[in-house]
C-alpha cells in the first residue's frame, strides 16, 4: 500500500488553502513553523492558524503574516533557488520546491517573453509565496505522500489588481500553467480569482493526474479555507489515504456515437482501421433509435493522445454528425506473454497477475489461428491443447 492524496478544488486552490488543509489533516502547526525556520526568513513573517466558517462549514485558515517593518524586496529565480538549497530541508522537500518555482518561472517567462532566470516574480516571489510552496512540500513529506492527484480546476472570472495593473481572471500565469499541465478547466459560475499562480504552480508540478478521485482507502480529510466568502463554501478538501499498488490505473477516452444510416459493410472496415490507428478496443451494439429506427452504437476506447486521430477517422468514414467523449479511469492487471510447448508447437499465452498471484491465463488467439491454419485442424482443438499445456 502507498500513501496517496487527492485535492478536491470546487472553489479553486491557493497556496495558503493547501497549507490549511495539511494542518487540518493533522500536521502540527509548530512542526511546520520549526521546519520553515531553516529558510532564515523568520524576521519577515509569522505563521498562524485558526478555525473559520465558510458558508456554515468549518475549515482551517493558515495565514502568513508579513512583518511591516521588514522590506519585502522582489526576488528572482536564482535567489529563490539559493534560499531553498541552503536550507536544511529533506531532499524530497528541496527537490519539489525547486521544481515548483522552476515551473512558475517558466510560465511567467512565457507570459513576459523573457528567460525564467530573468523573471521578476513580484507577488509570487514574496515571502508568503515561499512559505506557501515550501510549507506545502513539507506537509506532503510529513504525511509520506507518494502520489498526488487533483480535481479539474474552476476558471473563475472578473478582474484583479496586480503588479502589472488590472488583469483578467484567470491571470496569464495561471492560464499558462494550466496549459503546460494539461489541466481540465470548467466554470463554476463564480467571477472571482479562484486559482492563484502559487496554487496552479503547485498542482501542475506535483499532481500526476487531474480528474475524478482515485480508488483509495480514505484515512483522513483536511479542510483548508480560502480568504473570500463565496456563494459556496470556499474550502479546499485534501483526501489522504492508501492505495493498493497491485492493481494499476490508467486514464482512457471513451468515444461513442450511434449511427442508423450507414451500410453494415463499412463497420468492419471502420473497426479494423481504428485498431490500426491505436484504439485500445472497438465494439458495436444494436440500438433502437428515434422513430424506432434500428441503429448501431459504435464505441471506441483509446489513449488520450489518440482521441483526435480516432475522432477524425470516424467523422471521415461514417455518416455521424457528433461524437460523445468521456475521460475515464480504469483499473488494469499487469500482464505478460509466455511461451508454452504443445504437440502442435510453441504457442504464446497471456498471463494476468494481481501482484504475485496469477489470476488468468489465456491462449494467444493469433498464435492459435496460425497453428490451426498451418496444420488444417480445428481452432478449438488447438486451444484445448494449449490449455492442457498450461495446466
From TrEMBL:
Keyword Transmembrane: no
Keywords: Lyase, Nickel
InterPro entries xrefs: Ni_insertion
Keyword hit for Protease: no
Family under the similarity heading: Belongs to the LarC family.
Protein's recorded name: Putative nickel insertion protein
Provenance organism: Cyanobacterium stanieri LEGE 03274
Name of the gene this protein is made from: larC
Amino acid at each position: 500500500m502507498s500513501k496517496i492524496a487527492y485535492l478536491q478544488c470546487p472553489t479553486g486552490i491557493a497556496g495558503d488553502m493547501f497549507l490549511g488543509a495539511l494542518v487540518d489533516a493533522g500536521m502540527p502547526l509548530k512542526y511546520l513553523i520549526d521546519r520553515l525556520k531553516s529558510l532564515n526568513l523568520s524576521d519577515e513573517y509569522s505563521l498562524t492558524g485558526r478555525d473559520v466558517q465558510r458558508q456554515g462549514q468549518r475549515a482551517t485558515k493558515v495565514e502568513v503574516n508579513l512583518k511591516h517593518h521588514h522590506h519585502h524586496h522582489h526576488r528572482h529565480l536564482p535567489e529563490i533557488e539559493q534560499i531553498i538549497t541552503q536550507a536544511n530541508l529533506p531532499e524530497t522537500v528541496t527537490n519539489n520546491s525547486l521544481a515548483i518555482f522552476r515551473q512558475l518561472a517558466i510560465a511567467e517567462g512565457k507570459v513576459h517573453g523573457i528567460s525564467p532566470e530573468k523573471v521578476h516574480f513580484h507577488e509570487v516571489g514574496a515571502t508568503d509565496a515561499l512559505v506557501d510552496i515550501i510549507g506545502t512540500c513539507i506537509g506532503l513529506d510529513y504525511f509520506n505522500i507518494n502520489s498526488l492527484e487533483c480535481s479539474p480546476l474552476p476558471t473563475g472570472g472578473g478582474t484583479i489588481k496586480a503588479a502589472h495593473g488590472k488583469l483578467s481572471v484567470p491571470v496569464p500565469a495561471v492560464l499558462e500553467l494550466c496549459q503546460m499541465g494539461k489541466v481540465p478547466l470548467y466554470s463554476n459560475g463564480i467571477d472571482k480569482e479562484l486559482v492563484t499562480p502559487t496554487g496552479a504552480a503547485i498542482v501542475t508540478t506535483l499532481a500526476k493526474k487531474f480528474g475524478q478521485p482515485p480508488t483509495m482507502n480514505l484515512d483522513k480529510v483536511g479542510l483548508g479555507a480560502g480568504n473570500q466568502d463565496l456563494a459556496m463554501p470556499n474550502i479546499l478538501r485534501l483526501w489522504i489515504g492508501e492505495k493498493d499498488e497491485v492493481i494499476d490505473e490508467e486514464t482512457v477516452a471513451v468515444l461513442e456515437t450511434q449511427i442508423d444510416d450507414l451500410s453494415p459493410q463499412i463497420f468492419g472496415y471502420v473497426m479494423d482501421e481504428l485498431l490500426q490507428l491505436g484504439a485500445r478496443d472497438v465494439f458495436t451494439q444494436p440500438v433502437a433509435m428515434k422513430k424506432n429506427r434500428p441503429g448501431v452504437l459504435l464505441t471506441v476506447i483509446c489513449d488520450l493522445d489518440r482521441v483526435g486521430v480516432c475522432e477524425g477517422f470516424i467523422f471521415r468514414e461514417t455518416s455521424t454528425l457528433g461524437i460523445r467523449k468521456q475521460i475515464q479511469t480504469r483499473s488494469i492487471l499487469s500482464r505478460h506473454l509466455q511461451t508454452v510447448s504443445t504437440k502442435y508447437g510453441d504457442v504464446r499465452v497471456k498471463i494476468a497477475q494481481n501482484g504475485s498471484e496469477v489470476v488468468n491465463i489465456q491462449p494467444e488467439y493469433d498464435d492459435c489461428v496460425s497453428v490451426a491454419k498451418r496444420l488444417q485442424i480445428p481452432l478449438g482443438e488447438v486451444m484445448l491443447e494449449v490449455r492442457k499445456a498450461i495446466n
